[in-house]
Amino acid sequence: MNTKDFNHKITVTVRFHEVDMLGVCNNAVYINYFEHARLEYVKAAGLIPPGGIFSDGKLFFMVRNEINYRDHAFYDDELEVYSRISYIKNSSFGFDHIIVKKKSGQTIVDGKGVVVYVDPKTRKSSPLPDYFIEKVKTIDPSVQILRE
């Protein structure tokens, strides 16, 4: 993955409570950075309902996280978190992420995640609405549509 293939980016700073006694960012914290970036992505795409998050009863469940550790971040490092939706299937979609040190451009981690749209009554996967695809295309025009 290359950061040039991403149209969405946020910046985070490694905080004191996110590091160990050597000042190294704990490995689990990167999943939190991914989650924060995903939320900012859906805001940017206009996918938050007018009444605010959770106000429309729609359910999206994270069903997979994958992460590759390439280097370490340390206390007070500024990190750029790049995110994109790379594909959309019938009821699921995939996020890709890259986190780099802002100062050096060094890749710290990369990863992927899968999110499933779930019917709130049956708690089973449900087809993503067409408006979801159209809004994702505003940020990621090259998203792969893999619907059957």
Characterize the structure shown.
The protein is α+β, with helices and mostly antiparallel strands. It has a single domain (3-145), classed as Thiol Ester Dehydrase, Chain A (Roll). It contains 2 helices and 6 strands; from the N terminus they run βαββββαβ. It has helices at 29-44, 130-139, and strands spanning 8-13, 59-69, 78-88, 92-101, 107-118, 144-145. Strands 1, 2, 3, 4, 5 and 6 form a 6-stranded mixed beta sheet that branches. The longest helix has 16 residues, at 29-44. It is globular. The two termini are 26 Å apart.
What is the helical fraction, as a range of percent? 10-25%
* Helix/strand/pairing category: alpha+beta
CATH architectural group: Roll
- Give the termini separation: 26 Å
The counted number of beta strands is: 6
Observed structural traits:
alpha+beta; six-stranded mixed sheet; 2 helices; 6 strands
Quick structural summary:
It is built from two helices and six strands, in the order E-H-E-E-E-E-H-E.
Describe the secondary-structure layout.
Layout: E1 8-13, H1 29-44, E2 59-69, E3 78-88, E4 92-101, E5 107-118, H2 130-139, E6 144-145
Parallel strand pairs: 3-6
Antiparallel strand pairs: 1-3, 2-5, 3-4, 4-5
